[in-house]
Design a protein that fits this description.
7-stranded mixed beta sheet; 25% helix; Phosphoenolpyruvate Carboxykinase, domain 3; 346 residues
């Protein structure tokens, strides 16, 4: 806009105010990595295992009440409104133009934005403001460590915690929680699931195997991916299957210029059965594939839909949707028993 200087944008300030954050001095939007580093951003040491609180999920994470989340959000937005500089980054989960979820990160720290921007897909600068259901991430790195006690979540020391609200499409990262990439991705995946589903995408706890021009959906436990790690687009679990093709939910360092792959030519479901009941390789009908996907059998244990993280979509609904996709696109499916002898999925 004419007359605006770096850090000042009436449109952005109004948009942030709508999210409860009043800009005290400047708000910097979509800075490059080098620009963030000039503002003091550094590469943060990775963390893992921070507490994850999700409202509206179907299990897998500790709950947080509506009142607790509302109180926490007020404290976080008040804190962000009290700092001199705000850093904003716009991105997306999933790379299909029709089946993605726009994300806006609002933070008091260029380091948090530098970290979070590395996992989100790039999106046009105005895409978030024009989206009907964007996710908002509030990263309050310098907020008081006592904020957890104030809302009844308990003290988390100087590490922080992750809190998500599906109803509000909002994620709060307190303290150093932004450095727990795995926990942050699990929370974002839970939040984006219903939006992707409503837009015709199918969020799945799968990985992509790519060999030449062939792409396969791969459902497996973390231990089962070792034999084909070199063929994986990403070791991270989480893809979205849409009419446009298939893509990882999150950007990774392994990806080059390809961000959306063709419709899978096959689906591989890896199970682990040491009893010898399940053959080494079996070709499945769409109905059988949906059954094994829903069961997620792994040597006596069941992980429905292979989803270990919090989910807002029932596993049975995912199985029905997968069944429909397998029939519609005539995708062959194979069940591979990785527990029967030494074998390589490649």
């Amino acid at each position: 806009m004419f007359g605006e200087s770096p850090g000042f944008s009436d449109g952005l300030n109004w948009a942030l105010a709508g999210k409860g954050v009043i800009v005290m001095e400047k708000a910097f939007q979509n800075l490059t990595s080098s620009e963030l580093q000039q503002k003091g951003a550094t590469i943060s040491e990775s963390l893992s295992g921070l507490p994850l609180h999700v409202r509206g999920n179907l299990g897998g994470a500790s709950a947080i009440s509506k009142a607790q989340y509302s109180r926490l959000l007020r404290l976080v937005t008040t804190h962000l409104s009290s700092v001199s500089n705000i850093f904003v980054h716009d991105g997306a989960i999933g790379s299909s133009p029709k089946s993605d979820v726009k994300v806006r990160v609002i933070s008091d720290s260029p380091s948090a934005v530098l970290t979070l921007s590395s996992i989100l897909w790039k999106t046009p600068s105005r895409a978030v403001s024009h989206d009907s259901c964007p996710l908002t991430v509030y990263a309050a790195t310098s907020i008081s460590e006592a904020v957890g006690d104030a809302v009844g979540l308990g003290s988390q020391g100087n590490t922080g915690y992750i809190a998500a609200d599906v109803e509000r499409s909002a994620l709060i990262l307190c303290g150093k929680a932004f450095a727990d990439i795995d926990g942050t991705k699990k929370a974002l995946a839970a939040l984006c699931g219903p939006v992707l589903y409503a837009r015709g995408g199918l969020p799945l706890s799968a990985r992509l195997l790519v060999s030449g021009d062939s792409v396969a959906l791969f459902f497996a436990s973390d231990n089962a991916i070792q034999s084909c790690a070199d063929l994986l687009v990403s070791a991270d679990v989480g893809v979205v299957l849409s009419p446009d093709g298939v893509a990882p939910l999150f950007q990774t360092n392994k990806l080059s210029d390809v961000n959306l792959y063709n419709m899978p030519s096959a689906v591989i479901i890896a199970t682990f059965d040491s009893s010898g009941t399940i053959p080494s390789v079996s070709k499945l009908s769409p109905g059988q594939a949906a059954y094994h996907f829903l069961a997620g059998y792994q040597n006596g244990e069941f992980v429905p839909a292979y989803a270990k993280g919090p989910s807002c979509i029932d596993a049975l609904d995912l199985a029905k949707a997968l069944l429909s996709k397998l029939k519609e696109y005539q995708i062959p499916t194979f069940l591979v028993n990785i527990g029967k002898g030494e074998m390589s999925l490649t």
